[in-house]
Q: What sequence folds into this?
């Protein structure tokens, strides 16, 4: 699953990191995945996207189930500190069943 975002306004200072959080199945909790979506990683920071396996999203702590939409929020950081979190980003994917061969 690819989560991406646009370059935010940075008030003239370089973005040093992002905080990427993905909504859990409860619909209220947003959780960071430092293994796959660590916004301090230079590659992720510069490309402005990360990829997280569906198996991770289906497991704890996210526990997303079939039919749920993947949602994320992103916060940018620079020398002045952190900005506001983005609006909820509908990643554009719904957890679906794997097609079966007939």
A:
């Amino acid at each position: 699953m690819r989560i991406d975002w646009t370059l935010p306004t940075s008030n003239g200072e370089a973005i040093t990191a992002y905080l990427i959080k993905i909504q859990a199945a409860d619909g209220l909790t947003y959780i960071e995945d430092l293994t796959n979506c660590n916004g301090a990683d230079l590659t992720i920071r510069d490309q402005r996207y990360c990829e997280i396996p569906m198996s991770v999203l289906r497991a704890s702590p996210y526990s997303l189930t079939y039919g749920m939409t993947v949602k994320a929020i992103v916060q940018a950081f620079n020398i002045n500190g952190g900005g506001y979190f983005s609006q909820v980003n509908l990643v554009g994917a719904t957890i679906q069943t794997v097609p079966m061969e007939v």
Q: What stands out?
A: The chain has one domain: 2-94. The two ends are 26 Å apart (CA to CA). The helical segments are 42-47, 54-58. Strands lie at 2-4, 17-23, 30-32, 49-51, 69-78, 81-82, 89-94.
